[in-house]
Amino acid sequence: MIKIGTIQELREQLRPYRHQKIGLVPTMGYLHEGHLSLVKKARETCDIIVMSIFVNPLQFGPGEDFERYPRDIARDEQLAEKEGVDILFTPSVEEMYPSPVKTTVHVKGITDTLCGASRPGHFDGVATVVSKLFHIVQPDYAFFGQKDAQQVAVIEQMVQDLNMPVDIIPCPIVREADGLAMSSRNVYLSPEEREQATVLYQSMQEAKRKIEQGESDAFRIRSLIMQKIREKKLAEIDYVEVLTYPGLEPIADIGGKRIIIALAVKFGQTRLIDNMIFNL
Ligand code: AMP
């Protein structure tokens, strides 16, 4: 595995491989099995896998966890190499943003809801950095986790609207044994918070059973989930929504549609997100 910190060196390294299939796995590091599943998926179709590790200041709001976001580059290097990453791209903030950005990418509409509503400007930061990475790496394929389902919808919309020559490959959510979606932020949780955090998956599982039994009222599904989460005293709901996917429109009756149950819940300072997508 080659480790690269500059855009120029990355471009030079990739030049001989331009006729091969290049895959990009963008991450913010502190790698876990969720990230590594994207590399595994990339191995199926790509000859060269580039993983980027960059904690992107542009997608963090004031008072969010940019400074304290967990970082362990030595460990990440080992995991990435073991999984078969060919090039690990770890640019500094100065390398990516040598001067304040005056050009950003804004995807309309679908960024007004869910995490876009709770974290104003977040998806502009995401779309801008992903667009930069696409220009830097020029991958044939880019791999994103459905853990961040709204992010997938935003990136797919951006790629379509701007004719970016890359195929977006969404990959399933990887979970801990008890159902908690893997996340770099899970290390923030106290043991008690960690235990109560399993309610996210459990509440959606319960909703899933109800849907399978014929429940199709979005409001009732949402209420059921919120009720279940509120039983956990450390949980503070940011949002629970039942929307169409990928359009992220509100709906009353979910019958016959592709929908997402999406939730964000805070445990102390730690904000967790999770979701399930249903084709009904
Ligand atoms: P992050 O480092 O959190 O920005 O995540 C980098 C990529 O890994 C994103 O495409 C995420 O959606 C994906 N990812 C993070 N956690 C998981 C997970 N538990 N399962 C699948 N993909 C994930």
Describe this structure in words.
Strands 1-4-3-2-5-6 form a 6-stranded parallel β-sheet, sandwiched between helices. By secondary structure, it is of the alpha/beta class. It is globular. The mean pLDDT is 98. It has helices at residues 7-14, 33-45, 73-83, 93-96, 114-118, 122-137, 149-161, 191-196, 199-212, 218-230; strands at 2-4, 22-27, 48-53, 87-89, 141-145, 167-171, 235-244, 258-267, 270-279. The chain is 37% helix and 21% strand. The longest helix is centred in the middle third of the chain and has 16 residues, at 122-137. It has 10 helices and 9 strands. The N and C termini lie far apart (43 Å). The chain has 2 domains: 2-171, HUPs (Rossmann fold); 184-279, Pantoate--beta-alanine Ligase, Chain: A,domain 2, CATH 3.30.1300. Bound molecules: adenosine monophosphate. The site of adenosine monophosphate has 17 residues, from helix 2 and strand 5.
